[in-house]
Amino acid sequence: MNFKRKRFSYKLIYVVLDIIISFAVPLIAFLSFYKPVGFVDNYVPCLIFCGASTVVTIFLFAIFKIYRIVTKDIGIFECIKMMTIAFAIQIVELVVISLVPALPRFTEFIFAWLLATLAAILLYPLQRILVRVLNIAQIVTKKQNRVRTIVIGAGATGKIVVDESRRNIDNHNQIVAMVDDDPNKIGGSLANIPIKGPIADIAKIIDFYKAEEVIIAMSLIDKKRLHDIIQLLNTCNVRVRRMPLIGEMEGPNDKRIIDVDLEDLLLREPVKLDNHQVVDMLGGKCVLVTGAGGSIGSELVRQIFKTHPKTLILFDIYENSTYEIQMELTRKIREENIKDINLVTLIGSTYNEFRMEQIFKKYRPDYVYHAAAYKHVPLMEDSPAEAIRTNVIGTYNVAKMADKYHAKKMVLVSTDKAVRPTNVMGATKRFAEMIIQHFSDVSKNTKYAAVRFGNVLGSNGSVVPLFRKQIELGGPVTITDRRIIRYFMTIPEAVSLILQCGLFAEGGEIFILDMGKPVKILDLAEKLIRQAGMIPDVDIEIIETGLRPGEKLYEELLLDIDNQQKTSNEKIYIEDKEVLDADVEKEVKDIGKVFDMDDVNDVKTLLAEMVKTYHVKEEDEEE
């Protein structure tokens, strides 16, 4: 209510000012050029005319919504609108007065009319512009801790950033320069801010202006160009933010300034996979997702939900995160009035064979996406039996039930650490792949496949949340080795791959995504520190802690990249199928011995006997 009263008060003030202008301007102009002889003959007609002019002006301003203009945001368009209405009124006045018979001293009248017209078209917008100028001046004087900022892009989007910095009291950016590649703009100015260039010289420009932050305001560029600019800024000790690209905008008036996100840190185009066929495959079907509460599992659930399956089963051992994704989808069902999806949430363990059979027997899922797994490398080194229980026996139980109850396809979520594994987690995931290939050979009902990909940015336990937390606490940022490299992808990319590979699954394939070049963990840490506006090893120290047990300097996605097979999607490859010379059924039964073993290294040794590419390190054996 107070806000409405305040808004009404502002409108009333402008109405009063406009009344004064519209009445006084023609009266003063008249008195400037005419010397009245008689009050009735001269003043009364003039006062009637000024009053009529005032009524018409206020009426037209109201009709054309001039009083709805937010003064602190007034721009050229609004000013032109007011000036046009005022000029139109003056033209009408000229026509009306010209019709008066025996108009005395025509020359003086024309001068009076020109004076009134000029004053009117200037004074109406001027009073509002002055209010905006005073508002900007007030904001500038009130702002504390101004951040010297450079805007990359001297176009319309750059102007939005400048306007936002000037009118928003909560925005602490002081725009000191703009940078562009357009030679017609370089050397000029926009909104009284100098334009420099080209963008390739951004490091020198940042040093010259002592800038602390850079905002990329180029909404029409593609991701590759954005990545190139971010790469140029990597050596500069500034915080980097940006405006959304056109494809990222949430509406025509989206004026957010956002931090450089995880996809930007990849410095590559995000992989786009066509999931139209996925909709055709899963729509109206029963789909089971194990590990539904995890980072990958929950995104799988979200994307599968969009295909409108008949029944979507969320299964996980951890109740809290599973409950969160259940509530998210339940809310969406309610808000969008969705009636064709039966959402089922179940708690349990994949290594509980009886529980798995209960679920398969009751719901008989058409498609199974198996994301339930232990994935933390160091923790699994200390608890190898639990890694085997979930990653091996759990996978076997799910695969067995998929065959027994005639699921059409089962897709295993695997990892690049399954390639020549040096740790328990990787070895158990390789064992899981072997189980999938085994069931592919023996099943007459179900098609099996595995999807192998690298590290997932932003997932639970990944380095990005860890680094950000360490930066927030003031450091140090810890990395195991400055030479370590990893393949990275975002969660939506990983899930889109999993769903796409479900289409291609015909029997025991291991699918791999072309993830581009690997990323140095050190580079990633430095970028996150700079993103926070600090200097690596100056404001935030980066220290090495040494490789953890079972950790590699680099990961591999394929055993032999020269023999990889392409699919119809240029980003997805298939590893040549390995001929299994092992009795997987017997090995799964024998691996149960680990639950009676007290010694961790005995468990690892037994696992190594079954996964031939896994070798227990000598230091582990000596412990």
Question: What does this entry look like structurally?
Answer:
The structure is a single chain. The chain has 623 residues and is α/β, with parallel strands linked by helices. The protein has three domains: 2-140, no CATH class; 147-260, NAD(P)-binding Rossmann-like Domain (Rossmann fold); 276-622, NAD(P)-binding Rossmann-like Domain (Rossmann fold). 49% of the residues lie in helices and 14% in strands. It has 21 helices and 22 strands. The strands form five sheets. A nine-stranded mixed beta sheet has the order 10-9-8-11-12-13-18-22-21, sandwiched between helices. Helix 15 (424-442) runs parallel beside helix 20. The longest helix has 37 residues, at 106-142. The radius of gyration is 35 Å and the shape is elongated. The termini are far apart.
Any key phrases for this structure?
623 residues; alpha/beta; Rossmann fold; 9-stranded mixed β-sheet; 7-stranded mixed β-sheet; 21 helices; 22 strands; 49% helix
**Spatial extent as radius of gyration:** 35 Å
Shape: elongated
Low-confidence stretches: none
- CATH topology of the largest domain, anyone? Rossmann fold
Query: How many β strands by DSSP?
Result: 22
Helical/strand content category: alpha/beta
Q: Give the DSSP E fraction (strand runs of 2 or more residues).
A: 5-15%
* Number of structural units classed as domains: 3
Question: What is the second-level CATH architecture of the largest domain?
Answer: 3-Layer(aba) Sandwich
- The level of helicity is 40-55%
Provide a count of the helices.
Answer: 21
Q: What is the CATH H-level superfamily of the largest domain?
A: NAD(P)-binding Rossmann-like Domain
Task: Determine and state the CATH class of the largest domain.
Answer: Alpha Beta
Largest sheet: 9 strands, mixed
